[in-house]
């Protein structure tokens, strides 16, 4: 969608005051950085798009698709690290609306058909979190007495470890993910709530600790169409060390993180953070000819991942393209 078309669609949608109110409220929350879990972002995106679809469906399929794509692209532009998630949910909703309006139930109005279809989608989506961690194929990935290494704090990995701890006793080694240090929060939760044996290590100790690890479990912000991952910066280091020691690497990512997009390059798929988090400003001013690059993400190649776990169970990263074909319409890949 061209910029002019995007602006026109947004302007047309603003006449639907109730729908636009939902869009504005969500966009403000994204700008404030109010969300810390991709699941909450995905769920709210689906809720907002449902309101938009119901408000505009009487104008015909073409206008509904135009409005949904405009809102999805607008929100994705504000989403920061959740850009992929927002785009993926938008594409899922577009496909669902297309199928619903192409073959409507004649007993109901177009608006009722659209509302019912998206309500069912949301009900199914709301079960994603529980389905992911209770799936038998997922639960069997952690065995008693194993030493599991993870990096930083992934909400998906955290739920998986907490669920596994109800049935098994194992040890968790957590690399802190400096300078964010979010691994500290995960260590506290696992030690206090799950009563697990937890070891918190600096990122520099990953290579030294890896020989005693049985398995590496990591999260992801997005799973690209070729099976590679967009993950927090430092994840590539972990997977490289794991590969050196021939340790299996398991990635946990719900289906809404699977995207039809392909990687362009390592830097093109990474947001850059302020350099002050890794180098004091006073020191930086003393070395003006040095470029300080602080990427938010790593691009982890598919060959680094042994198994991809989702709410559908487990699969090899090389077959992600099949999931993409099931989830999305090829026409909707570019928003």
Automatic annotation (TrEMBL):
A GO term, aspect molecular function: translation initiation factor activity
The molecule here is called Translation initiation factor eIF2B subunit beta
Alphabetically ordered keywords of this record: Cytoplasm, Initiation factor, Protein biosynthesis
Where in the cell is the protein located?
A: Cytoplasm, Cytosol
Q: Which InterPro entries match?
A: eIF2B_beta_subunit (IPR051855), IF-2B-related (IPR000649), IF_2B-like_C (IPR042529), NagB/RpiA_transferase-like (IPR037171)
Assembly mode: Component of the translation initiation factor 2B (eIF2B) complex which is a heterodecamer of two sets of five different subunits: alpha, beta, gamma, delta and epsilon. Subunits alpha, beta and delta comprise a regulatory subcomplex and subunits epsilon and gamma comprise a catalytic subcomplex. Within the complex, the hexameric regulatory complex resides at the center, with the two heterodimeric catalytic subcomplexes bound on opposite sides.
Which Gene3D superfamilies does the UniProt record give?
Translation initiation factor eif-2b, domain 2
Report whether Protein biosynthesis shows up as a keyword of the record: yes
Alphabetical list of Pfam families matching this protein: IF-2B
Gene Ontology cellular-component terms listed:
cytosol; eukaryotic translation initiation factor 2B complex
| Family as reported in the entry's similarity comment | Belongs to the eIF-2B alpha/beta/delta subunits family.
Q: Give the domain of life.
A: Eukaryota
PANTHER family in the record: TRANSLATION INITIATION FACTOR EIF-2B SUBUNIT BETA
Which SUPFAM superfamilies does the UniProt record give? NagB/RpiA/CoA transferase-like
């Amino acid at each position: 969608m061209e910029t002019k078309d995007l602006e026109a669609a947004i302007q047309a949608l603003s006449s639907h005051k109730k729908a636009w109110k939902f869009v504005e409220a969500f966009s403000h929350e994204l700008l404030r950085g109010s969300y810390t879990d991709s699941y909450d972002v995905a769920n709210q995106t689906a809720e907002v798009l449902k309101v938009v679809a119901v408000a505009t469906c009487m104008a015909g399929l073409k206008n509904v698709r135009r409005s949904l794509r405009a809102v999805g692209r607008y929100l994705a532009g504000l989403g920061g690290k959740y850009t992929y998630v927002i785009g993926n949910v938008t594409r899922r909703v577009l496909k669902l609306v297309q199928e619903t309006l192409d073959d409507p139930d004649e007993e109901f109005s177009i608006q009722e058909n659209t509302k019912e279809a998206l309500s069912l989608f949301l009900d199914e989506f709301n079960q994603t979190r529980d389905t992911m961690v209770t799936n038998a194929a997922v639960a069997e990935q952690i065995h008693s007495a194993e030493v599991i290494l993870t990096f930083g704090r992934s909400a998906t990995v955290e739920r998986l470890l907490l669920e596994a701890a109800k049935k098994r006793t194992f040890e968790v080694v957590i690399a802190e993910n400096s300078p964010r240090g979010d691994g500290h929060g995960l260590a506290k939760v696992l030690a206090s709530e799950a009563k697990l044996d937890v070891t918190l290590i600096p990122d520099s100790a990953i290579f030294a600790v890896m020989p005693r690890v049985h398995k590496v479990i990591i999260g992801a912000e997005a799973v690209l169409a070729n099976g590679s991952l967009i993950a927090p910066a430092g994840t590539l280091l972990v997977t490289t060390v794991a590969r050196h020691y021939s340790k299996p690497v398991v990635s946990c990512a719900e289906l809404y993180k699977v995207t039809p997009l392909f990687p362009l390059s390592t830097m093109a798929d990474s947001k850059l953070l302020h350099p002050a988090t890794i180098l004091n400003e006073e020191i930086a001013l003393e070395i003006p000819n040095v470029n300080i690059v602080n990427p938010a993400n790593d691009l982890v190649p598919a060959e680094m991942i042994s198994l991809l776990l989702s709410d559908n169970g487990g699969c090899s990263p090389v077959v992600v393209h099949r999931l993409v074909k099931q989830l999305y319409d090829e026409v909707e890949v570019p928003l």
